[in-house]
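User: Hi! I'm working on a homework problem where we have to compare a predicted structure to a textbook description. Could you give me the structure for the chain below?
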Amino acid sequence: MAQWITQVGERARTRLSAARAVPPFAGPVEVRPASTVEDGIPRGVKVAGAWAWRIVLFILTGYLLLKVIAALRLMVIPVAVAILLAALLEPVAGWLRRHGLHRSLAAAIVLVGGLIVVFGGLGVIIYTFIAQFDNLSGRVGEGVGEIQRWLSSGPLHISEKQLNDTVSSLEKQFTANRGALTSGALSTATTLGEVVTGFFLVLFTLFFFLRDGGQIWAFLCRLLPHQARLPVARAGHYSWYTLVSYVRATVLVAFVDALGIGIGLAVLRIPLALPLAALVFLGAFIPVIGATLSGTVAVLVALVTNGPVSALLVLGVVIAVQQLEGHVLQPLIMGRAVALHPLAVILAITTGVVAAGIVGGLVAVPLLAVSNTAVRYLSQHPDGEPTDEGEEPPGVQDTDGEVDQPEPEPEPEPEPEPEPEGSVEDDIKDQ
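Assistant: Happy to help. Predicted structure tokens:
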């Protein structure tokens, strides 16, 4: 018995000595997970793949959005045009409301007055065109004959036979495609019906934008989660300021373009000077390229009516006016309305024209300017706090990396005129 106790003690001392010889516990034991397929993929490839599917998702969402807009273009386009017109006419309607007129009566007066101005201008342009049509047709025939003689006897040395063959080929193609032209006329009639429908929809929508614009925006903001209402409401407030400034600047630039080119056409005695000036005015609403294209039409009219010398003089007038716009009017007037890089403007116009034609090119830049203002405001003021007093709205601040030092102004830009019924922010806070 004593021998067994001695053996047990010896074994216990041996185990204790072995335990003391083990190094102290250094930390948790690392358990490695089982290997997977992604273990051999570099981290850069994983990051690129994560970005790739998100970019594809954004592109797919944008494509579906464009398809929906294209399907609803009969509604979307008139609403977009109505918003632009509301930005132009709202200051007048606000002035009438502040002087005691009911908002419905103020909206109606502004709408009817705008229609009178537009249709009065169209009437003068159409009357001018009809009055000069007979003289114009004869001068066009003479101009075409002069161009043919210049082509045959000028530096190109195109023979009379080649000119006659070209004219005969065009006549044959016209005869062969008469059926297609007929179907195109029917399609034009359908498009005309859509234009008439869109016109009345613009009037109806514009009236209610002028009458209840603030209430409509407050209602849309109340559909958002509670924490997002005030930031979105204020972002819309500054975006509307940007849109109003953009439309005013565009109208002023378009008027100067039309006035300069119209005076040049009148001095050079080019027929249809007034209609061509009106075309320049409308074309200037598409930035960068609109006035240039309409000026090209004026050059062509001068070529076929008064000859190459007059066409060159008109071209000089158009270039001079475009230089005045690009180096003086755009930086001085448009630069205070929106701060967009020229490349962004060109890409926006191209995308708008591809997506929705002429109307898309018309609304692309103001849409980009409004989005720029909203995004920049929300990034700088995520809680919806107002900008500092005297600070320019986010959409007109310089977007370059360097901080520009603008020339001091005699007084800051006036804030947008508030609605007499209360601001949108107050309506949001009350909810």
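For your comparison, note the following. Residues 137 and 305 are 9 Å apart (CA to CA). The chain has one domain: 69-397+423-430. Good luck with the assignment!
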